[in-house]
Structures are given as structure tokens and as C-alpha cells.
Backbone:
């Protein structure tokens, strides 16, 4: 099955509205590639990804800068099927390093999440990088059960963590 490509800059509105519209179009089609251009996108709300979405830039010059203390990208299995999502070839950063409560990517028990070629800029933040956790437990420190989540897997490849981590 072949899915289409949805170019963020083909949509209108704020950067957040454009990204959300492209993701919604891909989601309605059952999946697809949501493509960022070679520029900086400024958002103040979390981008929510759905199943079978490839969210991709053209390299580290495709940058998403968040001006609020929220996850830049959120994958929430409680609200949608989070399987087979890929995030690639972009930079994720925050405008203010004084806010420290959210990771760049927060994922609730993602199924086959693939992150490659992403630069995480987290200098000065207490929490930065990638957090995968079981939101139904209510605790970020509780391990994901191998019995209940046998297909849980995150693949991280060729990423740069600048004062950031995988948790």
C-alpha cells in the first residue's frame, strides 16, 4: 500500500496549524509522509502524531522550535493508535531553556516508533530528549511491563543529543 506525501507548507495558517493540517490529511488517508521544508517552524503546542505517519524534514535545517513548556512531539496511545510512526531528519529545540518540565518527544507506550537523524537541543533543561513511558501507570519512573507490552519497541538511530537523553 502506497501513501502520499503531505507538504506542511502547502497548508495555511500558523506553523502549528500547517503541521496539524498536514498530519490530519495523512491520518485521514490512513497514513503518509508529512514533509517539513528547509526552514524553522515555531510552535507553542504539542504536535500529536498518529499511526503510520512519517514526520520528516530535509535535515537539521528543518527545525521545530517550541516556545512553551510542552512536549514538541507527543505520541499518545490512549487517544490514537501509535503504531509505526517515524520521526526523521530535523532539529527539535525550545526558545527558552528556563522551562524544564517536558521532553522533546514524549511517547506513551509507542509501538515501533522509529527516530532517526534528529538533533535534540536541550542545553540548560532538566528534561530533554526522548521519554517513552506508560502513561496509564501515572508515573514516569515506573518501568513498562514486558508482559503487557510485548511489542513495545523504539528504534533510535543517528541522532544527536545536545545536553539531552533517552529515558
Residues:
Amino acid at each position: 500500500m502506497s501513501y502520499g506525501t503531505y507538504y506542511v507548507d502547502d497548508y495555511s495558517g500558523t506553523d502549528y496549524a500547517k503541521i496539524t493540517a498536514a498530519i490530519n490529511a495523512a491520518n485521514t488517508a490512513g497514513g503518509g509522509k508529512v514533509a517539513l521544508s528547509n526552514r524553522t517552524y515555531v510552535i507553542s503546542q504539542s504536535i500529536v502524531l498518529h499511526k503510520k505517519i512519517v514526520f520528516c524534514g530535509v535535515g537539521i535545517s528543518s527545525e521545530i522550535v517550541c516556545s512553551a513548556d510542552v512536549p514538541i512531539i507527543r505520541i499518545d496511545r490512549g487517544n490514537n493508535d501509535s503504531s509505526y510512526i517515524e520521526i526523521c531528519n530535523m532539529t527539535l529545540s525550545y526558545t527558552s531553556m528556563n522551562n524544564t518540565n517536558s521532553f522533546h518527544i514524549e511517547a506513551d507506550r509507542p509501538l515501533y516508533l522509529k527516530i532517526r537523524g534528529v538533533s535534540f537541543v536541550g542545553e540548560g533543561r532538566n528534561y530533554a530528549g526522548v521519554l517513552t513511558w506508560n502513561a496509564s501507570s501515572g508515573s514516569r519512573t515506573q518501568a513498562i511491563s514486558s508482559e503487557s507490552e510485548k511489542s513495545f519497541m523504539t528504534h533510535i538511530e543517528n541522532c544527536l543529543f545536545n545536553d539531552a537523553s533517552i529515558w
Summary: The longest strand covers residues 111-121. The mean pLDDT is 83. The helical segments are 15-28.
